Each structure stands twice: as C-alpha cells, then as structure tokens.
TrEMBL record:
<dbReference type="InterPro" id="IPR004516">
    <property type="entry name" value="HisRS/HisZ"/>
</dbReference>
<dbReference type="GO" id="GO:0005737">
    <property type="term" value="C:cytoplasm"/>
</dbReference>
<dbReference type="InterPro" id="IPR045864">
    <property type="entry name" value="aa-tRNA-synth_II/BPL/LPL"/>
</dbReference>
<dbReference type="Pfam" id="PF13393">
    <property type="entry name" value="tRNA-synt_His"/>
</dbReference>
<feature type="binding site">
    <location>
        <position position="107"/>
    </location>
    <ligand>
        <name>L-histidine</name>
    </ligand>
</feature>
<dbReference type="GO" id="GO:0004821">
    <property type="term" value="F:histidine-tRNA ligase activity"/>
</dbReference>
<keyword id="KW-0328">Glycosyltransferase</keyword>
<feature type="binding site">
    <location>
        <begin position="66"/>
        <end position="68"/>
    </location>
    <ligand>
        <name>L-histidine</name>
    </ligand>
</feature>
<feature type="binding site">
    <location>
        <begin position="311"/>
        <end position="312"/>
    </location>
    <ligand>
        <name>L-histidine</name>
    </ligand>
</feature>
<keyword id="KW-0808">Transferase</keyword>
<feature type="domain" description="Class II Histidinyl-tRNA synthetase (HisRS)-like catalytic core">
    <location>
        <begin position="7"/>
        <end position="253"/>
    </location>
</feature>
<feature type="binding site">
    <location>
        <position position="93"/>
    </location>
    <ligand>
        <name>L-histidine</name>
    </ligand>
</feature>
<protein>
    <submittedName>
        <fullName>ATP phosphoribosyltransferase regulatory subunit</fullName>
    </submittedName>
</protein>
<dbReference type="GO" id="GO:0016757">
    <property type="term" value="F:glycosyltransferase activity"/>
</dbReference>
<feature type="binding site">
    <location>
        <position position="111"/>
    </location>
    <ligand>
        <name>L-histidine</name>
    </ligand>
</feature>
<dbReference type="InterPro" id="IPR041715">
    <property type="entry name" value="HisRS-like_core"/>
</dbReference>
<dbReference type="GO" id="GO:0006427">
    <property type="term" value="P:histidyl-tRNA aminoacylation"/>
</dbReference>
C-alpha cells in the first residue's frame, strides 16, 4: 500500500527533527541547479535519469537529483568545520513508474564534516541511522570502496591500466571485463586485434591520410595519440598472477565485518597497498562497537556500493527491507575526494547519508 503524502511528510519531519537533535544545522538547496558540475560528479546512472532543461540566461539546468553535492558546495564556500547539516526536500530522477521507485520523492539527509576522526564520524552516522530505523527490522549492508581503490592503485601495472580500472569501479561488469583482460583471463576483443594489426602495418598518420576525407571531432593528433596508447597498452604485460588472484578474492569478499577484517589482515602482506585502508576499517569497527553496533554480526561486502553514487570513496552503507524489489530505505557513505573537487584545492573528510521517508511510512503501514 502506498501511504498518503501526509503520512510521508510526517515521517520526514520526524526524521528531520531527529537529525536536528543530533546537532545538525538545517540547510536548504535550490530545486533547479546548474547541470554541468552536478552531472559530472554524480556518475553515469544519475546522469541518465536526471531531468535536464535549458534556461536562456543560466544555460543547462537540472532538477535536484540529490542534496549532497549542493550541500558540499555550500560548505566548502562558506562553512567552518566540524559541521553537521540536515535537510528535507524533494529529489527528482527519471524512473520506470511501473516499478516501486518514484520519479519525485522526499529525501531526508544528514552530512558530517570532520577532519579530526573520520572513522569515528563514520560510526556516528551509521549508528544514528541504525537507531532511527531499528523499529523497521531492516537488513544492514556495509562496504568500503577505499579498500578496493587502494588495491587497484597498488597493482604492478601501467598507470593507464590502473586509471582504467579506477574509472570503472562503479560499473562492476565493465570493471570485471577489464580485469579479465588485463590479467590474461580473457583474450583481446577481435575488433581490437584487427585494429592493432592495422596500426602495426603503418604509422597512424599514414593510415589517417589513406582513409581519405576526415570526419569527426577528434583532430589527427588526438587520433595518433590514441593509437599510440593502444599500442602501448597491448605491449603491457599481464597482471602478475598472485596480484590478480588477490584482486578477484577481494571482489568476492562477503563476510561478517570482524571476519572480513581478519581475512583482509591476512592478505595485506601480499597486497601491502591496502594496509592503510585496512587500518581505517579496523578503527571504524572499533568506533562502531563503541556505539553499540555488533560488528561481529554486521554484514560486510568489499564490493558493496559499486552501483551507487560515484563520489563515494570509502565507507558505504545501506539499509534494506525484506522486499528485495524495493530500493534501499537508507544509504550513505564517505566522499572525501568530492570535497576536494568542489573546494578548489581545499578538502575535508566528510560522510553522510539519506533516508526515504516514503519507504519508512510504507513499511510502518505494513507493520501496523
């Protein structure tokens, strides 16, 4: 049963009041926002579902798909840290309205900016959400994208290949295809083989000239540089088998958090680049335990969050109803790098999350 708007608004106001009671300062964000910066930051999924329009004076604009980016923009321009913010309002995303996801819905959120103890901040946000949602009996899920990113950055391969993997971390299928190819588990696509054979036959400049009329936006120098990159990549040795095996192992890691920490600690000597991220994971679990979270039973998945917002770069979490067709009731994570992008060289560790009051009202109705 879909609850009436009044019931949804009541749940939203109650959650908003709880965030204010936790020390958050209420903030507003415009509904119509400049599209360029936002759509570059949100990633492929939201770009495809954003409502975009053109203003004769302001250029391309977008209906607010999320609060975090405009809140971060405002904080980096005017805020002092540490800071806690909360917000309540509609967000807009194109959806298949025949399913359980609405195109316009209320979102209530909490954001924490604190450079002194990031792991404690992670624990504070997660525990706050867990407490507010406890009556619903939801299933929690956690992960840490920072561990996977650290593992990729530490690979013994070319910088070009590492950047390709990092760029596709949020696209699991494409990431797996690249990893299979870079590790030698999958052959080069036939089209790539044929292209490399042609490039080996002559210089890119000669091939461009032989092709006749020039069509497209890329200049000949751009095409030549791309051809050189393809040739260089083809000559790059495959990932060392032990490194590749460890990365595959990391992608498949699903375990209670303390067991996952033990496993990660065990493979760290063989993949030393992840050591700082694993240390942060351990500190976060201790902070969570200190806030009453059972970290022995808390689910952890190293790949969790890889299909969500692309600005997450560390701890990620979500809360789910028993009905798997429903979207997450709540989700959030750490986005330190985003503050650097929007802060024009200045950055601050930050973590936050959102709750869908419409789903809270719906689930409470089913429990009544």
């Amino acid at each position: 049963m879909i609850p009436p708007k009044a019931a949804i608004r009541a749940e939203a106001e109650a959650l908003f009041a709880a965030f204010r009671a936790a020390g958050a300062v209420p903030v507003e964000a415009d509904i119509l926002l400049p599209a360029e910066t936002l759509l570059d930051l949100y990633g492929e999924d939201i770009r495809a579902r954003a409502y975009v329009t053109n203003d004769p004076l302001r250029g391309e604009m977008v209906l607010r798909p999320d609060f975090t980016v405009p809140v971060v923009q405002a904080h980096m321009a005017h805020g002092a840290d540490p800071a806690r913010y909360c917000y309540l309002g509609e967000v807009f995303r194109k959806q298949d309205t025949r399913g359980p996801r609405a195109s316009e819905y209320l979102q209530v959120g909490f954001e924490l900016f604190d450079r002194t103890a990031p792991e404690a901040a992670d624990a504070e946000v997660f525990a706050l959400f867990a407490g507010l949602l406890a009556p619903l009996g939801l299933r929690a899920a956690t992960g840490d994208i920072g561990i996977l990113m650290a593992a990729v950055r530490g690979l013994s391969t070319s910088e070009r290949r590492k950047q390709a993997l990092l760029r596709h971390i949020w696209r699991p299928k494409r990431f797996r295809q690249l990893l299979d190819r870079f590790s030698g588990r999958a052959p080069l696509p036939q089209a790539r083989v044929q292209l490399l054979d042609r490039l080996a036959a002559d210089t890119p400049e000669a091939l461009i000239e032989a092709a006749g009329s020039f069509v497209g936006l890329r200049s000949p120098s751009d095409i030549a540089a791309r051809a050189a990159a393809l040739i260089e990549d083809a000559a790059t040795p495959a990932l060392a088998a032990p490194e590749a095996a460890l990365l595959y192992d990391l992608l498949s890691l699903q375990a209670p958090a303390r067991a996952a920490l033990a496993h990660l600690s065990g493979i760290t000597p063989m993949l030393p680049a992840i050591a700082p991220a694993v240390d942060r994971f351990a500190a976060r679990l201790d902070a969570l335990q200190g806030r009453g979270i059972d970290t022995v039973a808390l689910p952890f998945e190293a790949s969790h969050g890889r299909t969500s917002l692309e600005y997450y770069d560390g701890f990620v979490f979500s809360f789910h109803a028993a009905d798997a067709a429903l979207p997450p009731v709540a989700s959030g994570g750490r986005y330190d790098a985003l503050t650097g992008v929007l802060g024009q060289g200045q950055s601050i560790p930050a973590v936050g999350g959102v709750i869908r009051p419409g789903l809270v009202a719906r689930l409470k109705g089913s429990l009544a």
